[in-house]
Every structure is written in structure tokens, then in C-alpha cells.
Design brief:
Layout lengths: L11 H7 L2 H4 L3 H17 L5 H21 L10 H13 L12 H37 L4 E6 L2 E7 H26 L18 H7 L9 H6 L2 H28 L6 E2 L18 H24 L14 H24 L1 E2 L1 H9 L5 H12 L3 H18 L8 H7 L7 H4 L2 H7 L8 H17 L1
Antiparallel strand pairs: 1-2, 3-4
The structure holds arginine (ARG).
Arginine binds next to helix 6.
Length: about 450
């Protein structure tokens, strides 16, 4: 491509370090689409003849069919997907192929291709996250009234419902989707026509190519356009944050599936056995989702460090932008699919969860609240009285509602038999009917809203 200036070819190591074709061949669809839009514009603007444009478009169609059928050939001498396609075009249609690169550089070409690729990745991620939300809402609906212990510090805190717990993840995923939507909207401008860095003297129509490729318009500064990878970073940041949520959910499944908890039976299809311990059924998929989140955060870090300190405009370091994005997209897609299956196909052991909710004095706050409401005792004092009741129950090895009334009255005479109505786990969750609280009727309202919003999208 640049033989005119060089007396000798590249060394073996130069060929190897320079080649991005092993990974950027993943951009072939976007590269062909952008070349089509570019050559159609060149013809419309009378920069290439209609005949040459037709030959180029025909050649690109043939190449697309070849790539589809046989894959993209990997010739390191051709460095990347852009030169691989252009050289094949020259083989197919001869000299006219050389006109495709008029008013274009690989710098604006790769920036355009990569944006198109990330945009597609965002659309796929969004579809995956929507499916995960469906799974969460379906299980939350079925378990709006299933009682489990709620934790702080992983210590029993107050009873909650499983539906409420699952809907917490629905909210996280909703924020993830909005982050991806933001990223998509911000990145949807076309760098094509920025050429190498300074723009071009050819009378091109950047709005035409932008529109043909589904962009909202052309980018406004050619230097920025060829050296900006914010769109990839935005994607990776959204992916990293999303992967943290998936990892937290995965961790819950790991804990819930453990024998001491026994809250959930995971589907065989997402578990593995042990080669030595016959009884084992391990939550490997959940553990790998937890592990993958670390790698996805690593991808974000990798590209941030690559971009840091690069002067304008394009530098070859930027060729290293693609592997972390491709890797993160692959890991995130797998993680979303695994968690969707885990949520949809797990069996929750609601009896066991309910029993666990009764351990650990989970309704102590309800006793304190009862003292405030029924006996008009200030909350701090009620907290103290309740603490004494918990201490007594603990010393006897019984639950709060198993303490005889007489003993409770000895702690505070203002307690009467109505207190027992407040101490069951059912009463506890039903009482928490503030907006966004865990009461089954509240959870059902949130589930209905979530379903309606998923259906309307
Ligand atoms: N393979 C390069 C990349 O992926 C394409 C752009 C090369 N541009 C250049 N001026 N060498 O970034």
C-alpha cells in the first residue's frame, strides 16, 4: 500500500507486531457497510464515476459473500481488515479498486467501523438484559409472598420477600440498560470523512454517509473524530458496572446453593459435578460470572491506560483498543445469558428460606416498632427494651415469640398479648408497606409496573 516510499519490506517482527487482522477481522461486516456508504457518496458527489462505483460495490458484495462463506483470510502483510478487503477488491475488479480510498484514511475508517461494531454490541447487550429482566420479574411475581431472611453484614436483619430481593436486581439491570442507552446515544455520530486527521479537500457529503450508516450526523472535529475512543470506554464502563451487578447476583446464588443455606436448587444444566466427590453439584456458572466480572473490569482498565496520554491525533497504540472491547463483549454476553438461565430455571426452597427467616431474631425491629406504636415509647427506649428481650430469648435458646408474656412483661410492663401478632415473619413483611418496601402487596405493584414497562418497550 505504501511501497513507493520504502526501499525494503518490513522485518518478520514488524509484520507480526503490526498485524491486527487476527482480531480486527471481526469488523468485516462494519467495514464493508462503511465502504459501501463511502463509495455511494463519492459517486453522488461526482468524485468517482458511476461505473467505477458500480464495480466497487459489486466487488464488495462478492467479498462479503466470500467472508461469510469461508471466513476472513489472515495475511499479516495486509495488516488489518481494511487492507485485506481493499487488496481483495483490487484482485477482483482491478484498478478501479484504488478509487475507494479517495477522501478516506484508515484512521476515519477504523473509527467508523469500530463505532458501528460497538453500537451493535450495545443493541445485543440490551436485548440480553431485557431477557434477564423478564426472568427476574417472572420469579419475583411467583415469589412476591415468599419470606426469606434479609441481611445486612450477611447477618439476619429483617424478613423480606424473595420477590423483593429479586426485584432489587431488576432495578440494577434497569440502570445498566440506561447506561448502555446513554452510551449509544452519545456515540452515534459518524467519523467517516474526517480522513487521516485534518479532513479532506474533496467535495464529500459527510451527512450522506452518516445517514446511510444510521448515525445521527457527522462528528464535528476531524482531529477528535479519528483519535476518540470514548465510545469504546463508555461501553466498557457500562459493561464493567453491569458485570458487577451480575457478579453480586451470582455470589448470592453461590451462597444460597451452599448446604448450610440450602435456599436454592440450581438447574443441572448450569451446574457441574466433581471428578472425585460423587455428591457434589457445583455452581460453576455462577462462579465464572463472578470471575468474568474481574476480567471485564480489566478490559476497561486496559483501554483506559492505552488512551491515557496519547497526543492528537491517531497513534498506533489505538490499534490495541479492539481486543479488550471484543473480550468484554464476549464475557458479558455469556454472563448475562448464564444469569438469565440461573434465575429462570432455579428452584427456590421457600420452606427452608422461611425457616431461616425465623432464626436470628429477625422480627426484633417489629417488637421495637410495636412498643413505639402501641405504648408510645420513644424508639431509642423501645430499642433498648427489645434488646433485653432478645438477650433473654437467646439465653433460653428460643425465638422471640416463644417467650412467655409474663417474661416480656417483666422486661417492660407496657407489653401486652397483642405483641405476638407483630412478631411473626408474615406480619413483619406485611407491615413494611412503605413505597418500595418488602410487603407482598408493594412487591406485586412493582412487579406489575415492571411487566408493563417491559411489555411497552
Ligand atoms: N489497523 C489500524 C487500527 O486498527 C488501522 C488504522 C491504521 N492507521 C494508521 N495510520 N496506521 O487502528
Amino acid at each position: 500500500m505504501w511501497g513507493g516510499r520504502f526501499a525494503e519490506g518490513p522485518s518478520a517482527i514488524m509484520r507480526e507486531i503490526n498485524a491486527s487482522i487476527p482480531f480486527d477481522k471481526a469488523l468485516w461486516r462494519q467495514d464493508i457497510a462503511a465502504s459501501r456508504a463511502h463509495v455511494a457518496m463519492l459517486a453522488a458527489c461526482d468524485i468517482v464515476s458511476a461505473g467505477d462505483a458500480e464495480a466497487i460495490l459489486g466487488g464488495l458484495e462478492t467479498i462479503a459473500a466470500e467472508y461469510e462463506k469461508d471466513g476472513v483470510p489472515e495475511d499479516w502483510d495486509l495488516e488489518d481488515i481494511h487492507m485485506t478487503t481493499e487488496s481483495r477488491l483490487a484482485e477482483l475488479i482491478g484498478a478501479a479498486a484504488g478509487r475507494l480510498h479517495t477522501a478516506r484514511s484508515r484512521n476515519d475508517q477504523v473509527a467508523t467501523d469500530f463505532r458501528l461494531w460497538v453500537r451493535d454490541a450495545i443493541d445485543q447487550t440490551d436485548a440480553g438484559l431485557e431477557a434477564l429482566q423478564h426472568a427476574l420479574v417472572t420469579q419475583a411475581d411467583a415469589h412476591a409472598g415468599s419470606i426469606m431472611p434479609g441481611f445486612t453484614h450477611l447477618q439476619t436483619a429483617q424478613p423480606v420477600t424473595l420477590g423483593h430481593h429479586l426485584m432489587a436486581y431488576y432495578e440494577m439491570v434497569a440502570r445498566d440498560r440506561s447506561r448502555f442507552h446513554d452510551a449509544r446515544e452519545r456515540m452515534n455520530l459518524s467519523p467517516l470523512g474526517s480522513a487521516a486527521l485534518a479532513g479532506t479537500g474533496f467535495p464529500i457529503d459527510r451527512k450522506m454517509t452518516a445517514q446511510a450508516l444510521g448515525f445521527d450526523g457527522p462528528t464535528k472535529n476531524s482531529l477528535d473524530a479519528v483519535s476518540d475512543r470514548d465510545f469504546a470506554l463508555d461501553y466498557l464502563q457500562a459493561a464493567a458496572q453491569c458485570s458487577l451487578h451480575l457478579s453480586r447476583l451470582a455470589e448470592e446464588f453461590v451462597i444460597w446453593a451452599s448446604q448450610p443455606f440450602g435456599f436454592v436448587r440450581m438447574a443441572d444444566s448450569l451446574s457441574t459435578g466433581s471428578s472425585i466427590m460423587p455428591q457434589k453439584k457445583n455452581p460453576d456458572a455462577a462462579e465464572l460470572v463472578r470471575g468474568h466480572s474481574g476480567r471485564i473490569v480489566g478490559c476497561l482498565t486496559s483501554l483506559m491506560v492505552t488512551m491515557k496520554g496519547l497526543p492528537l491525533a491517531y497513534s498506533k497504540d489505538m490499534q490495541d483498543d479492539k481486543p479488550p472491547v471484543f473480550e468484554a463483549a464476549n464475557l458479558l454476553g455469556l454472563s448475562i445469558a448464564a444469569m438469565t438461565g440461573m434465575v429462570a430455571d432455579s428452584t427456590f426452597k421457600t420452606e427452608r428460606m422461611r425457616e431461616a427467616a425465623e432464626l436470628g431474631y429477625a422480627t426484633a425491629t417489629d417488637l421495637a416498632d410495636w412498643l413505639v406504636r402501641q405504648a408510645n415509647i420513644p424508639f431509642r427506649e423501645a430499642h433498648h427494651i427489645t434488646g433485653a428481650a432478645v438477650k433473654l430469648a437467646e439465653s433460653r435458646g428460643v425465638a422471640l415469640d416463644e417467650l412467655p408474656l409474663a417474661d416480656l412483661q417483666e422486661i417492660d410492663s407496657r407489653i401486652d398479648e397483642r405483641v405476638f401478632e407483630a412478631l411473626s415473619v408474615e406480619a413483619s413483611v406485611a407491615a413494611r408497606c412503605s413505597f418500595g418496601g418488602t410487603a407482598p402487596e408493594e412487591v406485586r405493584k412493582r412487579v406489575a409496573e415492571a411487566k408493563a414497562s417491559l411489555d411497552s418497550a
